[in-house]
Amino acid sequence: MTIIYALDIIGTFAFAISGALVASKKEFDLFGVIIIAFVTAVGGGMLRDVLINAHPINWIGDLNYIWTILAAVVFTFLFKSKIAPLSKTMFLFDTIGIAVFTLLGIQKGLAFELHPFVALVMGMVSAVMGGVVRDVLTNEVPLIFKKEIYASACLMGGIVYLVTNHFGLSEWLQFFATVLTVIIIRLLAVRFHLQLPKIKDDIFGKTT
Amino acid sequence: MTIIYALDIIGTFAFAISGALVASKKEFDLFGVIIIAFVTAVGGGMLRDVLINAHPINWIGDLNYIWTILAAVVFTFLFKSKIAPLSKTMFLFDTIGIAVFTLLGIQKGLAFELHPFVALVMGMVSAVMGGVVRDVLTNEVPLIFKKEIYASACLMGGIVYLVTNHFGLSEWLQFFATVLTVIIIRLLAVRFHLQLPKIKDDIFGKTT
Amino acid sequence: MTIIYALDIIGTFAFAISGALVASKKEFDLFGVIIIAFVTAVGGGMLRDVLINAHPINWIGDLNYIWTILAAVVFTFLFKSKIAPLSKTMFLFDTIGIAVFTLLGIQKGLAFELHPFVALVMGMVSAVMGGVVRDVLTNEVPLIFKKEIYASACLMGGIVYLVTNHFGLSEWLQFFATVLTVIIIRLLAVRFHLQLPKIKDDIFGKTT
What we know:
The first copy, chain A, is mainly alpha-helical. The first copy, chain A, has helices at 2-25, 30-51, 58-61, 64-83, 87-111, 116-137, 151-166, 171-191.
């Protein structure tokens, strides 16, 4: 479906901008900004492809990823002061990005005949590991580990995909159900400040 | 040998708990805890398999790793306040873990016809890199680089394996000699606070 | 060309020493020093080989890398107080290292029939990612992201290689033009404190 490819590129663009913004806040030079934009945008898919032995890996097999990322860096360079007020637009793009990356990751996993549960993990790896690598390279504790429902939204979307796929719904329904699930859960989580529980205390014991 | 598989699962369980404890100390949410438990437990073997091109890699080829890790996270969630006083038990499990992971890593390396010295490195990678990835993701300087004899215990155990294997001892003898070497060296090191030297000063020069 | 192999080994030696020095400053023990020297020296080529599926990867296929790195650690251990005053020599070795690693990375990429632009990226990955992994493992923000022209020197050298290769110049001319470009740009950058621009403000907006 070409609309998925278009959304893949939009997600890549959005992720690259988010990486470029983080790197420029850290006063990285132009090269550092490009690297961080790059790993944020394609890091998840790259890790997925290395783990499932899918060569050529994403950005080696399709140069459009690189062009999209370079365009995103130029865009950030030109319009940085305009992007900050657009944080809601960025948030929407980022959310579309993780939704589409989750879908594509699971589809690729199933195409490689992985167990559905492993394919589900690959969907989440595709969606969230780019951000984790970005945070490791900028010497931050990965945001994802503490953030409102984020990977969990991908998880739920992935489960919806597996179910709709299992029951043989049309490709379009699978696509919409998956992407909408991720987006709706993410929006609700941010709107209502939902968080996953932490292991501060255990069920029988006291706070440590 | 099914006892090795059982010990592999025990080691995975112990490593996953140690990862979950570190992550919960950092106030990661449930998803973050699972990720850290996961990379601690299978990160070493995963890196080994990617480096030697052994696909499907460990946790993709055998779902029992994932189930074991999820069970360890649930276990940690339920009994966190009970585990802390069990640090000696945890230490023992961890030590069994590195011993078995060293053995399995070397065996796999030799099965892939690597040079024995490279196989030895793969044994150490299997045993210690999960903890390194855990520390990187939680933004700590990897403990292993400063700790009492730890990787060195794996190194010695690995050498024992190569020697007993070279001289054609029975599989059981190879297994016991390797695992016991790692465990004994690790126990002695902790008991007597043994440490590797640091390069503070050189042999001819003065302290810098 | 055996001179390239010799320079590869010299570059490996220089990178390993730079890693060992960083690790010993952090008070890592001997094992930690070896690991950091190792990833600094072969990390870039290792990542390149995993990404382009070139097995056996660099240090698995040629044990000379490991021996060179161990020799460099012993050398650092013996002569640490003598090396510090040699920072200019070390800088020269390091610069030769990135020049040769860039060349070898692109050549390998082209040999694997990658798009020239992807091969160029592989040249840079080979040259700089070892240092990035070193900085991540020692819990520092990677130097490269803020440093004077460094990766950019590799980029320019890589472009010179692609152009001279495209026009069918002799191997020796390709080699000299590439390596000299990297070295000269790097020397000029350090001499005149050249830096890449940062995205502090955008072209139309104000400083944020």
